[in-house]
Here is the input.
Amino acid sequence: MSVRVGLIGLKGHIGVCTEAMGQRSDCKLVVVCDDDAEKLAGVSEWSCADAETRTYSDFHQMLDEVELDVVCEAGVDSTRGSVISACAERGIHVLAEKPLAFTLEELDAVRSAVEAGEIALSMMMTMRYEPAYVAMKEAVAEGAIGEVCQASMQKSYRLGRRPEWQKSNQTFSGIIPFIGIHALDLLWYTSGRHFVSGTGYAGNTGHPEIRDMADNACLALGLDNGGSAAVRLDYCRPAAAPTHGDDRLRLAGSAGVIEATGCGERVTLITQDEGPRELDLPAPVDQWDDFISSIHGEQECLVPAADSFYLTELVLWLKEAARQGAVIQLPAPV
Here is the structure.
């Protein structure tokens, strides 16, 4: 069965779709939509595009005029919810950037539209597919570190030149929803523990040129088993650093400690009975292939709609907790 694919937005991780489409002969890029005419002009040079690939500047018009099976959404945060809902109304499956919605009220509307449209929905939790974190999840599930007592993750990025839409609270969801969602997902995914309460701080301390955008944030969270978790986020990684990001995930348990460092290049385990050793990593899994295979009914999607809604709700509540400077109770995953 041929899958007619549309791409709405050229702001996010479009490579999840464009770089993987060539690996599946059943996918055809039919149309691309964005408000940047210069970016659209370059679509014809993409390896996954052809002479029949059309371009649009308005996604409503595009959806009305082009028949599609799947949309990959990678636009600005403030329009994502409306894009997903519009696709759901037409029965089009969606792989979306994160978070799914801009507010909790919009998230409820998106959820209703997805359920009514009976579409498949997933979110670009790209790090869940990386071998290091799969290896960590498997080791913890097998009891390698015993009961998880404490979990923490750091995500530090180069600031670089940020697009204008990320500098405004009117279009950008913020550092906690945009970056923190990955950290929270990996803490939950690898530890098997979910969050029951949390608070946070976020602000722009050293980079006035990015206006509304925060350059730092931290979260403190309670786990469902009585343990604790912490998240550190910043855009302060120096330009001279060897990599764009510095990601570090650590789980401490009653029987050992497991850590992923080097942006997921290595995982080290130390236990009560064994000194530090690096774990073998499994083969990587491609998110686009996983999503399309799930639509075909060949397997369950690794990031199902339920997880996507939960994580979006989680970061929107924690964004509000940081704004209030309050500890709040957090929803449990469904």
